[in-house]
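Budget justification aside, the reviewers requested a transparent look at the raw inputs and outputs of the sequence design task funded under Objective 1. We therefore reproduce one unedited record. The lines immediately below are the structure tokens for a 270-residue chain.
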């Protein structure tokens, strides 16, 4: 428990492995439009178990405050406080905090991005945790102007603009529109990502209405001159496909995350 007063807590997943070297850490932020789900949601419990065993890595799943009771920037504060708690308080055998990856899906992908920016700006405050990379799975970004994919993909499963508009109204500060920097990260000053993790993986689904914003996010990171920025496209995937373990893309994603971490971790692991 990080802070009982705001129900901020962590759930740890350790793989059953006899790795000779300490394992990397994945700090995971769940999705749900900032308004639903939690680290103890069944879908995320299953996914984080799979992520820990398939990578292998120690997964730290963060339970953060939800909107509309708690609006932006509460979630970003919780996310960075979880990183600081891991840095200052938790001691785990066989874990390498110097190889730490921030990860999240949908709203959690948005959260992971903003926590990565804060971590880069406050690097001196972190003594043990080193953010090695960012894994952004179908991140939830927005803007006032509709994209082509948002207008075209009406009626696709899982997500629609009516639901996302409601989520933004519930999450963003009172009086803000979808061009607020919490939602519209495409307005991000490239200089803001100077200290951003070089290794960044952006995952896009071909049947996700949010895909245009995700592709533009990838392009924006590329403009920063960073190396190790990767775009993974699953052409037949809907939003949140990875929570459906029977879909063929789910094990593919887990394998791609493993490969990404092995490529960019400071040293190899078994």
């Amino acid at each position: 428990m990080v802070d009982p007063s705001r129900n901020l807590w962590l759930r740890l997943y350790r793989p059953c492995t006899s790795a000779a070297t300490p394992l990397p850490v994945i700090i995971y932020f769940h999705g749900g439009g900032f308004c639903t789900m939690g680290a103890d949601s069944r879908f995320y419990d299953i996914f984080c178990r799979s992520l820990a065993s398939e990578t292998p890595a120690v997964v730290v799943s963060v339970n953060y405050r939800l909107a509309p009771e708690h609006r932006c920037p509460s979630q970003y504060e919780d996310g960075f406080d979880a990183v600081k708690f891991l840095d200052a308080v938790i001691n785990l055998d066989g874990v390498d905090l110097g190889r730490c990856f921030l990860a999240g899906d949908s709203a959690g992908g948005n959260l992971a991005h903003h926590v990565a920016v804060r971590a880069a700006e406050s690097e001196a405050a972190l003594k043990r945790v080193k953010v090695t990379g960012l894994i952004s799975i179908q991140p939830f970004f927005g803007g006032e102007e509709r994209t082509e994919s948002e207008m075209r993909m009406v009626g696709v499963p899982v997500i629609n603009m009516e639901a996302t508009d409601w989520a933004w109204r519930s999450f963003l500060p009172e009086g803000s529109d979808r061009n607020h920097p919490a939602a519209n990260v495409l307005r991000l000053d490239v200089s803001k990502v100077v200290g951003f993790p070089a290794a960044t993986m952006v995952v896009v689904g071909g049947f996700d209405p949010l895909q245009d914003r995700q592709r533009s996010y990838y392009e924006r990171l590329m403009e920063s001159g960073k190396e190790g920025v990767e775009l993974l496209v699953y052409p037949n995937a809907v939003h949140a496909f990875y929570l459906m373990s029977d879909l063929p893309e789910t094990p593919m994603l887990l394998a791609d995350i493993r490969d990404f971490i092995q490529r960019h971790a400071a040293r190899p692991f078994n």
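The chain has a mean pLDDT of 93. The two ends are 30 Å apart (CA to CA). Computational costs for records of this kind are itemized in the attached budget.
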